[in-house]
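Researcher: I'd like a structural prediction for the single chain below. Treat it as a standalone chain; there are no partners to consider.
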Amino acid sequence: MWCLCLLVKIMQLSKHFKLEEFTKSMTATRKGIKNEPGSGEIKNLENLCYEILEPLRAKFDKPITVTSGYRSPQLSEAIGSKSTSQHCKGMASDIEIAGIPNIQIAYWLQNNVDFDQLILEFYDPNDPSGGWVHISFNEQGSNRKQVLTYDGKKYSNGLPDMKWKDGKVQS
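Model: Treating it as a single chain, here is the predicted structure.
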């Protein structure tokens, strides 16, 4: 047990991402839930890093904050999600980049990487830094390329239009 906890803290998934970033959870800590991925989930997280997150980091040249990564089935249910979530398989991550509007991140991902699902979560056009971007990658079979926006009440297909000013996305 101790060795696995140490491994989670030091394991490098890719150049810029450690396993610890994907397993840290205040809810798991508060509720005493183990949030430790197995080897299959770790492999999926590595794929997510190499195929999606590293190219995104290279594009914007800024650190990516992982707000939710791997979730054990027990943790997923504790936060009101499902144990079948791609987070439980190590295939999904919720992310943000400080100073970059989430809609800009979502558009770049949609147009530049292979992905299974992309959701602009809790999008508010009056607060471009509000919410987050959910992104998943499935190495098994073909990725669906499903793109959704969730405004806190309902899902809609696609992404909303970006607002521009002086050649830049408004933030």
